[in-house]
Amino acid sequence: MQKDWCRMMNRTIAYVPSDNDVGVPVVIYRRVVEGLVEGNHWSDPPPHLADDLKSIKKALKGHFYNCQSRRCCYCSIELPNHGASIYLDHVISRRDRPDFMLSLNNLGAACGPCNGSKSAKPVLIEGLDVAGVVNVPMDSGAYILVHPQLDEWADHFELDEFSRIRKTTDKGGKTIEMCGIDKLNAARLSDHFASRDRAEVVKVITKVGSYKQRARKQRAIQLLRDLAYRGSDKARVAVARIEMEVI
Ligand SMILES: [Zn+2]
């Protein structure tokens, strides 16, 4: 542990917000930034920083909740106004760059599924070394996914008639893949099926695209078609749409 404290003395501090940015006195913020030197300090901080980190997390959640108009920075679902349901996502993972852990430019408020699915996946474009960048890259082109601070959500996605989130750019597509947004899309489509069938429908829809054999895909579509008879008219339209997309 002592070694960590020594090592941090030589570290560049990526970013410390002013008092007004998140409502935490800069002197406290700086002390915590300097003290969190390992990725796991986010959930297991040095004891003398635990209370201040807790306050900072609460302030950051409030900050991003409001800045992002209460929406998840990746899938755009409305976040509940409850701290435990808001996840602070580190765009560049805290495992890769603990020194970016409290950098406002490296954070966004996300829902649990997006935050969990994205996890510590690499986000920088090929050729950019995550260990080599000095500060949080502030060029949107440096990232393969839609960045909470540098990109406009609506520039990369649109909603279809089933309220599914569809990509309009490669970055949008990568974000859907990395954050597991296909599951949310499948759930939205399943809303048109009978409630007892929805879990099964989500399972089939999320898998059918990955099947290699055409016959297997067709069997899955037939199952959806059978289930659609217990749903609304739109369930049958949904199956036709899925069939068009995967076969
Ligand atoms: Zn989300």
Characterise the protein shown here.
- It is a single chain.
- This protein is 43% helix and 6% strand.
- It is mainly alpha-helical and 247 residues long.
- It folds into two domains: 2-145, no CATH class; 191-246, no CATH class.
- The strands form two sheets. The chain has a two-stranded antiparallel ribbon with strand order 1-2.
- Strand 3 (157-159) and strand 4 form a beta hairpin.
- The chain is elongated and about 60 Å long.
- The model is unreliable at 1-14 (pLDDT under 50).
Descriptive labels:
247 residues, mainly alpha, 2 domains, two-stranded antiparallel ribbon, 4 strands, elongated, disordered N terminus, binds zinc ion
Concise description?
By secondary structure, this protein is mainly alpha-helical. The chain has ten helices and four strands.
